[in-house]
Amino acid sequence: MVTAFEVPQVAANDSGWGPTTVPESLDGVPYAPFGKGDKIGRVSDFTAAGLRYSEYLFCKRQSFTSA
User: What is the pLDDT of residues 21-46, one digit of tens each?
Assistant: First the structure.
């Protein structure tokens, strides 16, 4: 059984990317604009590699504080 897919209406934004208006559900939510060149540091990483990195940093800090 195939269901019909309705394409949602998309507004054109000639001055940039993203929505042209703020939905009511998000009105009043704080937002800090950022540029593509801004450095944000390390983002949250809950993968095994991210956990190993966290353990590495913890061990590295312990070696400096135990001396």
Answer: 888 888 888 877 777 777 766 666 66
Calpha distance 28→38 (Å, rounded): 24
- C-alpha angle 32-34-39 in degrees, rounded to nearest 5: 120
User: How many helices (H) does the chain have, and how many strands (E)?
Assistant: 1, 0
Distances (CA, A) of 56 to 1, 8, 53: 52, 46, 5
pTM for this prediction: 0.27
The rounded Cα 13 to chain-centroid distance in angstroms is 22
- Name the token pair of 24: 């009511």
